[in-house]
Amino acid sequence: MNNHGLVGRLRSLMTPGGNPSRLTGRGLERLRAQLRECAAGQGGEVSARARAARLAETYLGLDDAGRQQFLKLIALEFGPDPAKVAAAHAAYQAAVGSDGQWRAEAALRTAMRSSRIRIMTQFNAIPQGVKFLVDLRADLLRYLENDRELAVLDRELESRLSAWFDVGFLELQRLTWNSPAALLEKLIEYEAVHEIQSWTDLKNRLDADRRLYAFFHPRMPAEPLIFVEVALTDHLAGNVQELLDEQAPVFDNRKADTAIFYSISNTQVGLRGVSFGSFLLKRVIDDLKRDFPKLDKFATLSPIPALAGWVRRNPQVLVEAGIGLSLDELTSGAWAGERDQLRQLREPLTRLAARYLANAKRGGQADGPPYDPVSRFHLGNGARVERLNFLADTSAKGFAQSFGMMVNYCYDPDELESNLEAFAGAGRIAMSPALRRLARTVAPA
Amino acid sequence: MNNHGLVGRLRSLMTPGGNPSRLTGRGLERLRAQLRECAAGQGGEVSARARAARLAETYLGLDDAGRQQFLKLIALEFGPDPAKVAAAHAAYQAAVGSDGQWRAEAALRTAMRSSRIRIMTQFNAIPQGVKFLVDLRADLLRYLENDRELAVLDRELESRLSAWFDVGFLELQRLTWNSPAALLEKLIEYEAVHEIQSWTDLKNRLDADRRLYAFFHPRMPAEPLIFVEVALTDHLAGNVQELLDEQAPVFDNRKADTAIFYSISNTQVGLRGVSFGSFLLKRVIDDLKRDFPKLDKFATLSPIPALAGWVRRNPQVLVEAGIGLSLDELTSGAWAGERDQLRQLREPLTRLAARYLANAKRGGQADGPPYDPVSRFHLGNGARVERLNFLADTSAKGFAQSFGMMVNYCYDPDELESNLEAFAGAGRIAMSPALRRLARTVAPA
Amino acid sequence: MNNHGLVGRLRSLMTPGGNPSRLTGRGLERLRAQLRECAAGQGGEVSARARAARLAETYLGLDDAGRQQFLKLIALEFGPDPAKVAAAHAAYQAAVGSDGQWRAEAALRTAMRSSRIRIMTQFNAIPQGVKFLVDLRADLLRYLENDRELAVLDRELESRLSAWFDVGFLELQRLTWNSPAALLEKLIEYEAVHEIQSWTDLKNRLDADRRLYAFFHPRMPAEPLIFVEVALTDHLAGNVQELLDEQAPVFDNRKADTAIFYSISNTQVGLRGVSFGSFLLKRVIDDLKRDFPKLDKFATLSPIPALAGWVRRNPQVLVEAGIGLSLDELTSGAWAGERDQLRQLREPLTRLAARYLANAKRGGQADGPPYDPVSRFHLGNGARVERLNFLADTSAKGFAQSFGMMVNYCYDPDELESNLEAFAGAGRIAMSPALRRLARTVAPA
Amino acid sequence: MNNHGLVGRLRSLMTPGGNPSRLTGRGLERLRAQLRECAAGQGGEVSARARAARLAETYLGLDDAGRQQFLKLIALEFGPDPAKVAAAHAAYQAAVGSDGQWRAEAALRTAMRSSRIRIMTQFNAIPQGVKFLVDLRADLLRYLENDRELAVLDRELESRLSAWFDVGFLELQRLTWNSPAALLEKLIEYEAVHEIQSWTDLKNRLDADRRLYAFFHPRMPAEPLIFVEVALTDHLAGNVQELLDEQAPVFDNRKADTAIFYSISNTQVGLRGVSFGSFLLKRVIDDLKRDFPKLDKFATLSPIPALAGWVRRNPQVLVEAGIGLSLDELTSGAWAGERDQLRQLREPLTRLAARYLANAKRGGQADGPPYDPVSRFHLGNGARVERLNFLADTSAKGFAQSFGMMVNYCYDPDELESNLEAFAGAGRIAMSPALRRLARTVAPA
Fold first, then answer.
1. Which of 308-347 (B) contact A at CB < 8 A?
2. Taking the model in full, what pTM does it have?
């Protein structure tokens, strides 16, 4: 996806004729010189802009190997000068406790300032520069997997992107069937939870009993950063295929008392670590309440993406839960077609999932963060694990990741704060009494 | 101005009943606790927002003494921990040259991260939070004059504001008589060079032979950050009263070949050090060229604000230039009413100004930056000192600062880059041959 | 005003060199030929547009005498052909009652169609063509006073303008201090009831305890057609100078239960006879109710413009009401400065006004329309005469037209329909019991 | 299509419970009373609006038979009073030539005014009232085919719609992939010439080498009235399948010198007789010229919709043109698959079409309007028949109507006016010399 974005820009930026796709000796020297000029920041803002455009063009003309060289050059050769840092640090420590401490701290900070970020931010001056940087970081994250030396650059870039994408700068927009087609097309491209099959499917998700909200950044107006799909209904929905059924009648939204968040998708790989999901939900709940004063239940219908993976790592849990099938049999979903199996598996599978949500922790420590990433996200926002839904997502993906089960997390305005506190402090997981009980029961021998 | 802004927001934010205007012992304790909570960042983004709003309210309810205490508390008690910095620094220096250098650098950076900026940026989440911070920094700059310990906070805040107000995020808008009255009213309030007398005066400055451009930030849409007023004409305008004459006929802009920038005003005290002026001119020139392809001269009609101050410090220059009047007589402007005086003073005064612009440097070193701040700005953007204009600003202010003289700086697209380079490198000042000659001539004995 | 508008357009439309300001023999011939071409409608829409632009230019280049000739030419020479009308009429009458009646009616209608309106509507194709026609009709109305033969053209034009300015096409806009200055300037120009003194006065009328609404036509977006000024308050306001006082504190609009319409101005002379006032009030009340659900009283504070004129025609009413002063003394307002006079006049003057509003009819018939034009307007919309206010408008104009008195008309949603019916049917005037009683009392001898 | 529109509105307007779908005795009486009230116009505008809404609801609740009754009632019972018309007419004829003629004409006009249009226009006050009326007229046109008595109502309605949809009120919009999806969906629904197959097909028609323009009315912002699809290219395109090929590379629009209008669709059946097509083309050409100054050829690629029909009526023309196949064989398109047939038919078929375009007239008179409706439209706008294209539309529809041929009409700004004049006057058809020659050649025996 991010590559696609870069390639799109490439077409308009690249001079015809083509660039070398990899940096050779001379090319590397030329690039180093370009980067030094950028870092020195000579000339005014105007020449800086021209320089940034040339640099971006060079970058876009390179293949992955070349780009990695490019970024490595910045990471390793444009950091602070250790000697200057040492001197400033000595002065700082000497001044601690004296009047001069604060001046010395500022001076140390200056010595730490690297040219890397200076080079990076100059891209902001070119058209679509923000998107360029976000896409560049997506590259960086890929290269980082095999090359940890790039981490220092990634940290600086993440820190700057966090400043730029501060939630205070984001704009909530409701997307409807009256939104630009080019924007709606992006939703089709980016939906990560329940794929959008067609324009008809999309139109169905924008019908009168639905809402779709996204966050935008003022400098990336054509790119939703994160979006959430909401169904207005009168019950705690427990099956996603029903929600997505294009033939289902449109629910009269004036009768709605429940809003189901059935899909949340982050779109920009390059913004990993910059979080705005919780803020989005808060803003969306406010907006929905204003439009539908009768709404009083806000809940998700969420996947349990890491359940099968957890079972693979802890194979004994199947037996403990009283389940006779193997993991492979469970993920195939074949059992769902047989009535007997269905009847027999309903309780043990639900119990397995309840235990997973109640007890499975990352790193294995009892007070650690939940093993399940979606669970981490919602509990971290103050939600409560409310209900497990058997046969709630009968797609292949649904069986593969969680044996067809889904879960509702409830956002109850009255208990958000206390949930948050207990979760942030002692790692306590808010859970409905029914589920908690189920998690504790022992499977009949 | 900035206080006014804060007070405006105060009205809507303050809970009725009123706050203590100064921090007493218990109030201080409560504030310290509030700040610690903010710094810890417990709970989600949502509680962070509520906390920031309460904190802002507290701040707005304080008088200057209280606010200074507030900011001092943040500056002194929420910095990095010197011991942790020392440890991280030692690890970093030990790793220099090894594979671990980059990880260690990142760790040192983390240790340096202060809670101050964390507290500050949380204000961004409240409505008009950006404007709040800009106004808060305007306070800070005032307190800073007497309290240098605040500088460490100011540096961090300036650095964050620089990231947020990166030119890439600014939007150029042309303001016209069709712009919102509330916005135009701000121009009247902010115009710093040639005061706007009335709505009629303002309308005149927005007529068909004028242009007015401003930069805006997406999160401060009601506040121009900087604006420039342009006159379209067919000659290098040399008198500002003529330009501002409401009775003057409207020039047919289709015949224009020259754009005169006759006023540039920064509006936000709290953004001192965050520069966007040069970028504004570049963007404005581009926009004008698109609308009026015949335009080929871009020049300012600028004040010489520090001329009289320089003469006061260097009284001998009057004699050297062959001027018989005292500084006080010159700044009074009384001589301008007498024809003989006028005739006698024209040449020596012009020569004096030419020398000033050619030679007067800050700090007194020959290759230092120009003494005159306006000159510094335009030369730093690549302009050329083109022409001096005698009796060009006959207002009291005009006489007081530069004996009624003004200067044209020319922005010649063809020589911008070379001017910039020569100026940034050797401090060479670009000047028209006529002016350079005049600066060199000796006054007749 | 309308001339000003035409002159404004003139500047951009007129070819340099100037036109004859009056139609001489040859010019008249040329014009007649132009009009014939227009009427024939030869060529496509494109040439029609070019032709209309030339014709508009000719018109704008003429002085009043020339324009009157221009319009007269259209009125007299481009009507239907009486012979064709006669033939079609005979056929129609012959067909009445038969199957062919409807076809014959359509044919008669076709025969009646005049070229006048064909010529007129072609102006709609030029930029600002609608405004051109509205201004042209303002001219026409002036000439009409001395030249009744123009009435036939005026009727056709009014009929077409009524179609174009159908209330269904009008857009309600709330104007605020954030509206374009160019638009707000129009309010200053057009306010006909209580003159706007300055931009500060205007800003005061747009404050948080005020609302200003206007109707716009999509093709005249820069011209409010009619606007109403509203004060939000908690009592039935009885004094207009208090409402307009720029020093008065801003009322907290959340406490408002009453909306006072204190000024309604029509702006386009050329739209006389095209009514949209009542619709405006209806739409404004709806909008206010949505924003302020607590509002439950909607009333005007209105002038009584024809009271003094009525007294002049019926001098005996002063004596009947027990008033000793002459009409001239009353309209001078001098008595308002003397406490004794004030005390003595309060009751008889109020009684006089109550009788006037209860009984004075145009044409003198008891069931005729009210004598007072403002009364006619509000009663015709279903309002009730609620309360008379002594010393409510102490401007010179206020004394001159109604001895300083003003009146509140109440718009009570619950009784609008019944008031309307009674008024439209029997001419019954809705009035508060107190006022009705007062109107009946006999002055003490 | 229009029914669909009405039904759409129906859903929101209808009170639950349902209406009688046909007017019975009592229902008819009630409707008659409702209409009388509307015609009388009692009460203010506000009650008028409520009444219109109820009436619209009644109408929408009826089936076709009921609606026809509804419209018939208006047509027959709400016309002018023949007696009053007779009296006014007599007075008018008596006054002809006297001073009173103009007053009498106006009085006759008043007597002719029917209540029908008064009732109709009241619908304009309800939301989407204009669209309601346009859809109602589409119904009316259908009923009219079997019931000529409705013509009198249709004429009045057409006349009013013509006033409302005057080209001066229409807004040209360029539609792009950034336009609202709901609007683009309408294009798919309405495209009448070359069906849009899918969203991908649509996106292809909005690519960088395409333009799509539509006219909108300010009160029907969600409904394009007419739209034209344009391809930017460097040659006179002669094959529509090539233009619509989704796989074809995007043409670099900076090199374009030719704009091909390859599809023009009217969308509103209810606006039949209200013409704006020629104006659309004029405005589009202006817009294209501004964006692409190099464009100097503007031409259509048009169907020849009535060619096969004309051949059916004039079977001898096949023989005259030297064509051996029967009409049925020709329209099947089977011959297009055989190389020999293709070679043999190319010339005679092209000649047949050339003759048709040069000589076939409606009504058969030599100076009458062209037989072909598309030809009529473009020649009436000043275009020239430029070139015939063999095998230009190989769809089934293309063969069925014109044996696969299409024609280019050229819009040459330099000759538009003279073409128009010659066409409007003597019915002369502008044609390229090559085509004219071909039309004259005799088929070889």
1. none
2. 0.86
